[in-house]
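Retry 2 of 3 after timeout on previous attempt. Resubmitting structure tokens to design endpoint.
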């Protein structure tokens, strides 16, 4: 059911026709006297002036006529009278809506009370009463209407309260939250408990989590509450996983199993994730999102045949067909079936994977030494998918930069910036392109512009610090920038690598070793391999250095960084 909060603020008169049809078809009507055809409409009308209106339908018809002539106050009075006589909930609902728009406080409360009296088992009248009470600081009505709502059914969905609460003035939010907390504490309704926890966390970052923990401790929490609470541990996925695995009673809930599988996959626990997902799909093969996740994990673990089988099953799903074609294209690439890969990537026609598919097609063209075809793949995509034009321009520029064509990418990025001068993504891409053509001043200018737009952004701080450490002799300045980035993201492999690199440049080899060792433990990236190997070489451990370079080179055989480093240090 759509919460009444979605309708209440801007009441539509559309339900009037339904009310009229219902009344006229279900109740005996008696012709309303000539007042409907005389000067009754000429001036303000009161019920006292129309004593011969004896039917509910007559009152409703006259009220709608008054609305048409912009006499809303009389219409409210007429609808209130109709609601008193009728036991039709639609009449009472209409009276409440109109009273909310044009009535007095007394009329609004009268209409709400009548609506609740006629239709006590529906959500609508209690939701409307809650909204009115919250907006007018009426705690008793607020508590009673909310209590009726959560008691109306065990799994009443109270999620709409979160957005409504956020729209209240600050002082009214505080008062409403007190009542919501009180009702939630005495209720088993998990939806309301989650709303309260979220609202409390907005006021004080951890108070809602602590409150929800206490709420859960006293109950057997439903699966959706357990899942919500586990997500409060993010971005610490391991803690989120551990929290979910505590609750054996809900461990077989399909949504919890699916979430566990995704988190295990993101943590690199592929076997665990695969086991969970295979069980889910065996239980219900219609869970297409989970089938897609299973396919990707099978693909990443090298199980191409089951991955391909699952992906082909997804081709029957309109929602996931594009995803399936993209990953089927990846499988064709691994099997070195280039024509089949091209055919599959061309069938990707939805979502962000359109851009990734075009990158893949351009890469295939470059492998055939056909840079013009690579450009044509992007040009064609801009015609076919105009909604992605900006993203495709950026993707093409990134592709050109990654393939030593930065000089071609820079004009394209500059044009994109003229249309969106505060795009951090475009600025960052152009900074990388400038760095590739050795225009370090322009690189620094774009990175500092990013920091103007997004002060203390750790990625921009790291990029600027690394650039200064790697391409200039401004090492002390670079160290300050990288330290600031590392304070915000202490576990980032890229920033740990930057810190190790600038310390190496400063000659602080022992300090550099701890950072580069940690960075290498987190990522076998080829740049980290180049830096870590150089440090080991300078520490007098040439065999260890060569081994690190070998591993890094195997992970990225096209890495010029490792080749240049080895040549500079070994003269080979």
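Retry 2 succeeded. Sequence:
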């Amino acid at each position: 059911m759509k919460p009444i909060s979605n309708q209440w603020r801007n009441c539509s008169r559309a339900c009037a026709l339904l009310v009229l049809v219902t009344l006229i078809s279900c109740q005996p009507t008696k012709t309303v006297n000539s007042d409907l055809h005389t000067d009754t409409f000429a001036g303000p009308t009161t019920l006292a002036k129309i004593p011969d209106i004896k039917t509910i339908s007559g009152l409703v018809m006259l009220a709608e006529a008054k609305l048409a002539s912009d006499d809303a106050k009389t219409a409210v009075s007429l609808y209130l009278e109709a609601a008193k006589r009728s036991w039709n909930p639609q009449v009472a609902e209409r009276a409440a809506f109109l009273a909310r728009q044009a009535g007095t406080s007394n009329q609004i409360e009268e209409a709400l009370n009548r609506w609740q009296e006629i239709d006590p088992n529906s959500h609508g009248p209690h939701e409307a009463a809650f909204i009115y009470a919250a907006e007018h600081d009426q705690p008793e009505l607020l508590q009673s209407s909310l209590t009726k709502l959560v008691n109306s059914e065990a799994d009443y969905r109270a999620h709409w309260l979160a957005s409504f609460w956020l729209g209240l003035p600050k002082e009214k939010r505080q008062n409403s939250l007190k009542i919501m907390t009180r009702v939630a504490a005495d209720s088993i309704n998990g939806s309301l408990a989650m709303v309260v926890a979220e609202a409390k966390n907005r006021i004080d970052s951890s108070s809602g989590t602590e409150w929800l923990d206490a709420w859960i401790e006293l109950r057997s929490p439903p699966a959706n509450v357990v899942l919500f609470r586990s997500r409060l541990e993010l971005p610490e996925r391991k803690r989120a996983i551990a929290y979910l695995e505590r609750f054996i009673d809900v461990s077989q809930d399909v949504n919890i199993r699916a979430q566990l599988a995704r988190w295990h996959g993101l943590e690199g626990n592929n076997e665990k994730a695969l086991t969970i997902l295979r069980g889910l799909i065996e239980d219900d093969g219609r869970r297409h999102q989970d089938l897609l996740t299973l396919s990707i994990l099978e693909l990443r673990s090298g199980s191409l045949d089951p991955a391909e089988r699952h992906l082909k099953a997804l081709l029957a799903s309109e929602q996931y067909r594009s995803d399936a074609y993209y990953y089927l294209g990846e499988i064709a690439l691994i099997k070195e079936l280039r024509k089949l890969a091209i055919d599959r990537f061309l069938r990707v026609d939805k979502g962000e994977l359109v851009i990734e598919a075009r990158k893949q097609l351009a890469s295939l063209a470059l492998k055939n030494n056909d840079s013009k075809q690579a450009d044509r793949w992007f040009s064609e995509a801009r015609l076919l998918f105009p909604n992605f034009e900006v993203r495709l321009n950026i993707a093409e520029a990134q592709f050109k930069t990654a393939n030593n064509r930065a000089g071609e990418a820079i004009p394209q990025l500059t044009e994109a910036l003229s249309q969106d001068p505060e795009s951090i993504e475009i600025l960052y891409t152009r900074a990388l392109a400038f760095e590739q053509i050795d225009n370090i001043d322009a690189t620094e200018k774009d990175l500092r512009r990013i920091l103007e737009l997004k002060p203390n952004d750790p990625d921009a701080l790291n990029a600027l610090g690394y650039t200064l450490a790697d391409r200039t002799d401004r090492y002390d300045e670079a160290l300050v920038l990288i330290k600031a980035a590392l304070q915000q993201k202490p576990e980032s492999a890229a920033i740990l690598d930057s810190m190790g690199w600038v310390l190496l440049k400063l000659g602080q080899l022992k300090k550099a070793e701890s950072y580069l060792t940690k960075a290498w433990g987190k990522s076998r990236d080829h740049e980290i391999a180049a830096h870590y190997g150089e440090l080991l070489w300078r520490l007098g451990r040439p065999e260890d250095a060569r081994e690190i370079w070998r591993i890094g080179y195997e992970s990225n055989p096209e890495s010029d960084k490792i080749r240049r480093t080895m040549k500079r240090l070994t003269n080979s």
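Attempt log closed. The chain has a mean pLDDT of 87.
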